[in-house]
Amino acid sequence: MNEIPDHLDYRLSILFIGFNPSLRSGEVGHHYANPRNNFWRILHQSGLTPRRYAASEDRDLLKLGYGFTNIVSRPTRGAEDITREEYKAGRALLREKLQKYQPQIACFVGKGVYTEYSGRQRVDWGFQAEPVTEGIREFVAPSSSGLVRMPMEEIVGIYRQLSEAIRGEGAIEGEDRG
C-alpha cells in the first residue's frame, strides 16, 4: 500500500503529527480518511478551521498554515502493527522534518505518538514544558480515532487550546495545561 504524502511548508502555524496512516488513508491517499476518525470534525468544532473539511481536502489546509505528517509513513490497520525499527527510523526522520520546516507548533495527535517521539513515559495533554525540538512548541492532543473513549467535548476543548494559542488568546510559551 502506498504511503501518503506529507503536506509540509516552512513556518507552518501547526504541523499535525499522527502515528501512521490508516488502511483507508492509504487507499485514498489522504490523511485522516477513515470515516470513523473524528479529526476533521474536531478541527472545525475547536475553531481551528472555518468549516468542516473533508479528508480529500487535506492539502488545502496548507493555506490555513496547517501541515500533516506521521511518525511512521506505512499504512497499517492499527498502531500496534508498527515495528520498533519503524519507530526508530520515524523518530529520526520526524526530527529532521521539524528542524528543517520549523513549524510554530508541533501537534502530536495522541499521547502515544508523543511518547514514541520524545522517549518520555508520561506526558500530559497540551503544551509541553520542555520541548524535545528546540524552538518549536510541542502540543499533545488526544487521538482523533473513533475508538477513543474520552468525551468529544473534552477532546474538542483540548484542541481549542491550539486555536487560542495561534490567535494569541491562550497558552503561554511552555505552559502545560495538563
From TrEMBL:
Pfam families: UDG
Alphabetical list of CDD domains matching this protein: UDG-F2_TDG_MUG (cd10028)
Keyword Cytoplasm tagged: no
Molecular-function GO terms, alphabetical: pyrimidine-specific mismatch base pair DNA N-glycosylase activity; uracil DNA N-glycosylase activity
SUPFAM superfamilies xrefs: Uracil-DNA glycosylase-like (SSF52141)
GO biological process: base-excision repair, AP site formation
Residue intervals of the Uracil-DNA glycosylase-like domain: 6-151
Keywords: DNA damage, DNA repair, Hydrolase
Keyword Hydrolase: yes
PANTHER family reported in the protein's UniProt record: G/T AND G/U MISMATCH-SPECIFIC DNA GLYCOSYLASE, G_T MISMATCH-SPECIFIC THYMINE DNA GLYCOSYLASE
UniProt-recorded name of the protein: Mismatch-specific DNA-glycosylase
Species of origin: Paenibacillus campinasensis
